Model the fold of this input.
Amino acid sequence: GFPRTLGQAEALDRICELDVVISLNIPFETLKDRLSARWVHPASGRVYNMDFNPPQVHGVDDLTGEPLVQSEDDKPEAVAARLRKYKDAAKPVIELYKSRGILHSFSGTETNKIWPYVYTLLSSKIPPILSDEEN
Done:
């Protein structure tokens, strides 16, 4: 997400005024498992996820048959460290938007269960786009 740090939030303030900020609260273990399941075909940048977008043959790119690799950043230990660092950096950002009354938090583990609530919020904030025929 963005902004991730207070410095980024302050820079964003200089170029636009936010009226809605969304925070997705997803359990640490869920995030760690999802990020750790990511594998990449280095030559093309194709990304696979062993849980919800696996290659046809485990460990092998679907198009070239070349081996997939896992970035050092995607290994479970590195993911856990990244998530802890993110949580510490993001806390003041969350507090800033909470104090402004524009933070909306959603919790869960599955996109299809969180999305309807996010969609309802955004639909209430953004006017519908009318076609020329409707104007």
